[in-house]
Design brief:
The complex is a heterodimer. By secondary structure, chain A is α/β, with parallel strands linked by helices. Chain A is built from 14 helices and 14 strands. Chain B is of the alpha+beta class. In chain B, a hairpin with a 2-residue loop joins strand 2 and strand 3. Classes of the chains: A alpha/beta, B alpha+beta. Chain B: It comes from Acrocarpospora macrocephala.
């Protein structure tokens, strides 16, 4: 029913392009075959909200450099293990002898530090405002326990500057945004207001069930039909309009905004990432170690940047599915199951091409 | 910041792919998809210079390693079908021969241990070839310092499992490696069985119209092991599904015409179905709501960002049977204590050849591909 209402809201002859900012949405869309429910006039493009996908190769090389040092145990989330740097991935470094362990939360890394007092445990922190509070909490816990062998290699990024960079890029043609639900549980909806006010694009903060996403698309189309551009909250059961003050306070106690940070495919974006505050320098891997700060240029044929900006669909990339596959990813979009390219390769290849009718039977 | 570098390996991979025939800049999505299909079918190449854990996970990397290293070196007609066991003509009879190594950690887990796993796993490899399992060998690699009491516990459960499966362990080997060079105890079992039925099983027998059946709820062994490793800080009322399948397989073979059987171990049901689709050049279409998964497995998988279709089972198999006999097959399986949860999960179709499709509970359709290596948990 929702699907037919979506169809009715589309003005004949008009094309709608919406970006789902969050990788979790990309995953849901492909996992449940949601594009089958959308009329041809609605196109979804996949935004920069996959934390693994936006990590530049140089940062991966830096992390591997840390992992190779004597006595170091490097820890990170599972998604990170296959992300290629200039010199291979964590998995390759692990095969070559580095002690790299997968954890499910930074607290697990803290536990490893507690159990291995003679080793140096580094947690490679990645993610948006969603995961930053747990990293910050872990640092506070380490400080409270007086642990001296736990360090964070901070790669937390912030979503708003990335959305702004996309809006400012000359080749974007977006009609609206499906806002990142998980990030918004922390930052709330207020920070998105400039998108509606200054850029005249609607944004609907969305949940992660298939119906949440369809309803959000419906709400975006409704706004466009009414000639409005507002920030609306579809995910009211979880997202408070003003965000989570406690989580934001914890982040700002431990971390501060970096002047600039490199994003895979998007280049350097100012004020777009977090680093540890000086007060917590004792837990900052970048302070403890002389991190090489390698800068690796993206391979010329890799078009992750265009995919992240929504200019290209994954399959329009020159190397998609041939040189760049989930087993040998060249670009990060192919690594995480939330990455637009991996999601499309694993789930979506068929749906969009042949047999659209089978899905409706 | 140091001088810019480029990733040479990536540039090289791109250059190689560019020389694929027909890789001119495509104008339409279909062309791209065809190109991907070609790339998928291309003879695999091991790019890595070292073995990584992905090579042992049962996914694409394992397959690539087997094709590019082992089959390449040992090539022969008995090996090349790459079934769970090799079917050998010997003096007018047919023997099935198989081998498997067990490196599970922890050695003891809810529902079993490395011992019964090593017996059941090899018995199952014989059973799904249609054979009656007869004899096993057992090789042990023990680490210096390993408790003899633990070894006795393992051998006791091997003996019990062998008695239960009606096989005899008739030969063996023991090696001890220095402390730190092994993980306590590794077990390798080989098995011989006799194929008495006048049947030919295997992926090439599968054709459109056939029904796809799983013998019970999936993913329980894999999730049990992950939880038993204690890294997750979660507990669940769950035990490994390890069991000898020879008897339930015989029940099924007696009841209906069967095209193909595989036990869904590493890589899970999804990997088995992909092998069927690729080898028979058919499409396997499964229905998400029909797949038997216990709620506790679904819950654990959601928590960990895993898909139960890729999680290992040790006492479940996938059967492809003549579509007209699907209900009879399920009825036969459900009449057996190990098959109470058996269900038809999908059908075989002609097109699109080589792909496994899943009709989601929500009504969409998506591809179920082979994983590269171990399923890696997602972070958010």
């Amino acid at each position: 029913m929702l699907a037919s209402q979506i169809r009715e809201l589309c003005e004949p002859g008009r094309q709608y392009t919406f970006m789902e900012v969050c990788g979790g949405h990309t995953h849901t869309i492909y996992k449940h075959g949601l594009e089958d429910y959308l009329p041809e006039a609605v196109t979804l493009v996949h935004g920069p909200g996959c934390p693994v996908c936006v990590i530049p190769m140089g940062r991966v090389d830096d992390a591997i450099d840390l992992a190779r040092r004597p006595g170091v145990i490097m820890t990170s989330f599972g998604d990170m293990m296959r992300v290629p740097g200039g010199q291979g991935s964590f998995l390759d470094a692990k095969a070559a002898g580095a002690d790299i362990r997968m954890v499910y939360s930074p607290l697990d890394a803290l536990k490893i530090a507690r159990m291995n007092p003679d080793r140096t445990v580094v947690f490679m922190a990645i993610g948006f405002e969603t995961t930053a509070p747990s990293t910050a909490m872990t640092v506070l816990r380490a400080a409270a326990e007086g642990l001296s062998n736990f360090f964070v290699f901070c790669n937390h990024v912030t979503i708003i500057p990335a959305i702004k960079a996309i809006l400012d890029s000359p080749d974007q043609r977006l009609d609206g945004f499906i806002g990142p639900g998980h990030v918004s549980t922390v930052i709330g909806c207020r920070p998105y207001e400039f998108i509606a006010r200054e850029y005249g694009k609607p944004l609907v903060c969305a949940g992660f069930e298939p119906l949440d996403i369809l309803q959000s698309i419906h709400m975006l189309l409704r706004q466009l039909a009414d000639g409005r551009a507002d920030v609306e909250n579809q995910y009211t059961r979880v997202v408070p309009w003003d965000g989570n003050r406690t989580a934001l306070d914890v982040i700002s106690r431990v971390m501060e905004v970096r002047p600039f940070f490199e994003w895979r495919g998007l280049g350097f974006i100012s004020q777009s990432a977090l680093r540890m505050r000086e007060a917590y320098a004792a837990y900052d891997a970048e302070v403890l170690f002389d991190v090489p700060g390698v800068r690796v240029a993206d391979p010329k044929a890799c078009q992750c940047g265009e995919v992240l900006k929504g200019v290209l669909k994954p399959w329009e990339c020159k190397v998609f599915g041939t040189a760049c596959t989930p087993e040998t990813p060249i670009g990060t979009c192919m690594v995480s199951s939330e990455g637009a390219c991996a999601a499309y390769y694993n789930f979506g290849r068929f749906t969009r091409s042949r047999h659209k009718e089978t899905s409706r039977t | 910041m140091t001088a810019d570098q480029t990733a040479a390996w990536a540039e090289q991979a791109i250059a190689e792919a560019a020389h694929e025939p027909g890789s001119a800049h495509p104008s339409r999505e279909e062309q791209v998809l065809l190109r991907i299909e070609r790339a998928r079918r291309r003879r695999p190449k091991v790019r890595e210079e070292r073995i990584t854990l992905a090579h042992g996970a049962g996914g694409k990397a394992t397959r690539t390693l087997i094709d590019a290293v082992f089959v390449d070196a040992f090539r022969n007609p008995a090996l090349e079908p790459l079934g769970d066991g090799a079917v050998l003509d010997v003096n007018g009879g047919r023997l099935v021969f198989t081998t498997d190594s067990y490196v599970v950690s922890p050695l003891f887990f809810p529902g079993g241990d490395i011992g019964d796993l090593a017996v059941n796993g090899t018995v199952n490899d014989l059973a799904v070839c249609g054979a009656r399992p007869l004899y096993l060998s057992a090789g042990f690699i023990l680490e210096e310092g390993f408790p003899v009491a633990d070894l006795r516990r393992i051998t006791a459960s091997m003996a019990a499992a062998a008695a239960h499966a009606g096989v005899t362990i008739v030969t063996g080997d023991t090696k001890v490696v220095q402390r730190g060079r092994g993980d306590g105890c590794y077990v390798t079992t080989s098995g011989v069985g006799v194929l008495e039925r006048e049947i030919t099983l295997g992926e090439p027998m599968v054709r459109p119209g056939d029904a796809v059946i799983v013998s019970g709820p999936i993913g329980e062994h894999g999730i049990t092991i992950m939880i038993a490793r204690g890294e997750l800080d979660i507990e669940a009322d769950l035990a490994s599904d390890t069991a000898a399948l020879h008897d339930i397989v015989a029940t099924l073979l007696d009841a209906v015409p069967v095209r193909m059987l595989r036990d869904a171990t590493r890589g899970g049901v999804a990997t088995v179905l992909n092998e069927v689709a690729q080898a028979a050049q058919v499409s396997v279409v499964i229905e998400e709501p029909a797949i038997p998964v216990r709620p506790v497995v679904t819950g654990a998988c959601e928590l960990l960002g895993l898909d139960p279709l890729y999680v290992a089972c040790e006492g479940r198999f996938v059967a492809v049977v003549d579509g007209d006999h699907a209900d009879a097959a399920v009825a036969a399986l459900r009449g057996h204590p190990l098959g109470e949860g058996a269900a038809v999960v999908g059908v075989v179709e002609a097109d699109p050849a080589g792909l496994v499709l899943l009709k989601t509970a929500f009504g969409g359709t998506r591809i179920v591909d082979v994983l590269v290596g171990d399923p890696l948990p997602r972070i958010c």
